[in-house]
Each structure stands twice: as structure tokens, then as C-alpha cells.
Amino acid sequence: MKNWFQKLGVKLAKGMEGRYGFDELSMCMNMAGIVLIFLAYIPYMQWMSIAAWVMLIWAVMRAMSRNHTKRREELNKYYGIKKKTTDKFSLWKTIWKERKTHVFFKCKNCGAVLRVPKGRGDIVVTCPKCKSKIDKHT
Ligand SMILES: [Zn+2]
Fold it and tell me: pLDDT digit string (tens) for 94-125?
């Protein structure tokens, strides 16, 4: 019996040779799929089970893929989206933490978020990104 399991292990290892394997994106898709399976139990939300199975099958197909370049591109896109999201959340956290001492606003020219201290009256703020001057009351 032990020999049979060893042979099976060797066969599985040979079958996985050259395959991409599970990465962070695959794990994230698996977790999302599992969450969607539970959400599908909510009445009128059964359609989510289809989305869940698509996620789970897609994650396994990514892991079994031999096209490493394509999987790397997908992973890099995922990292880009993840970074944008975490940056936005960290900005919201900073705005909430400093809401009593600073005023936050967007530059009308380039969209950069600017931070100035409260209670300074009428001031002219120079955007560090595009160097445009903005009149602001704090
Ligand atoms: Zn600007």
C-alpha cells in the first residue's frame, strides 16, 4: 500500500512538471469563490454559485497552465489593482486620522491630493506635482 502511494506521488509530481502552480492571484480567486459559495445561500442570490464555480475552475486552470508568461502578466495586473486599492484605503485612513488638524483636497489641475493645516485663513497652495497655484480657505 505504501508503495502504491509512493508511485501515485511520483506520477502526480511528474504530471505537475512545467505547470505554473498556485500563486497569490489563484489563492485570492479561491477565497473569493468560497465566499461566493456561502453568499449563494442567500435567497435570490443563487446566481452567485455560478460565479463561484467560474472563479474556482479558473484558479485551478491557472495553476495547471504551462503558459507562464501569460500567468505572470495576469499576476502583475492583479498586483497593480491591489496596490491601487491599498493606497486608496491608506489615504482614507490618513484623512480620517488627521481630519481635526488638516484639510485635504484635490488639485483641480492634476487631481493630486493635497494636505494643508487647518485654521490658517486664506492661503495660496502650490501643488507639488504640477506647480499650479490654488486659493484655499482653511
Ligand atoms: Zn496639481
Answer: 999 999 999 999 999 999 999 999 998 999 99
C-alpha–C-alpha distance, residues 120 and 118, integer Å? 6
How far away, in angstroms, is 100 Cα from ligand 1 center?
24
Within the chain, strands assigned E span: 102-106, 113-117, 122-126, 133-137
Burial of 20 (0-12, 13-18, 19+ CB in 10 A): buried
The full set of domain ranges for the chain reads 20-75, 97-138
pTM comes to 0.73
Distance 24 CA to ligand 1 centre (A): 35
- Number of neighbouring beta carbons within 10 Å of residue 33: 20
CA of 132 from ligand 1 middle (Å) equals: 6
